Amino acid sequence: MKAKVVLLSLLTAMSLSAQELTIYSHRHYDSDKGIFKLFQEKTGISVNVVQAKANELAKRLEVEGKNSKADLFMTADAGNLEQVRTNNLFVSVSSPELEKLSPKELRGKNNEWYAFTTRARIIVASKDRVKDGEIKTYEDLTDPKFKGKVLVRSSNNIYNISLLSAMIDTLGKEKAKEWAQGITNNLARTPKGADRDQIRAVYAKEGDVAISNSYYLGHLANSKNPKDVEAANSVKVIFPNQDDRGTHINVSGIGVLKTSKNKEAAVKFIEFMLSKEAQEILTNQNYEYPVNKEVKPAKILQSWGEFKIEKPNFEAYWGNAKEALMIFDEVQWK
Prior knowledge:
Oligomer: single chain
Structural class: alpha/beta
Order of helices and strands: HEHEHEHHEEHHHEHHEEHHEHHH
Helix content: 40-55%
Number of strands: 9
């Protein structure tokens, strides 16, 4: 009997090692490349990564239909994940390991996708030009005293779409529109560049405050470019709305696709993404918040302190996206 069990385990391992996973990924980080390599070394399962923008990959999955070779869809932002989920392209999966490692509030509605990191949509403000306590909420950025001082990227960016979609869900359409109009009124310049560029612009005194994802500040602070380090050190971190709903968060996540011919291996990969080993790589190299409770955030994230999180309704991130884009257009947030 013991010999049969050993033989069965051996055959299972051989079967998995002969497999290949194809991952459609929007993410482009060195941390992910290291994780792909480590997973392949540990399991023998080869990983083929197809990279493109999230909306391009989602469209490709629709066009390919049942003929798609993709096993997993991996991306930043819950809005992107929800787009694929609502298009009925994911399959619900679970395992004892996933149940142990994945917080239930950081998953798709029926376990169609799993978040493996989170990031906060923070406010960064000049240490020299913004007084402590002067900004406590996202809404404070709409105060006329900040006219010509607010920096943020374009309205067609998924991070801003998800932020406004969440506001529509929690505050209602009218208040969300008032906020977007207030930001537009206070812009220091026509939106351009990525989040890191907004922080650099605060350092360059083009504005006094910026909206950014938290991990971008981590990258600047740990950059090999001295000017980027100076830019990071010139600003302070504000976690908005700590006295009420909390700070907006988003996720990076992954889900198994219905077209996958290697679902067992695909689940193993998600389990690995949630493992202590992979989570430590993600937080220490990419400065994202880990979802595995056994893993401490990177030291720089710890230095900013703990913060209250706004309870996320990820379905709204995509469900309200069209309405959010309409609001951006109406208030002329470019």
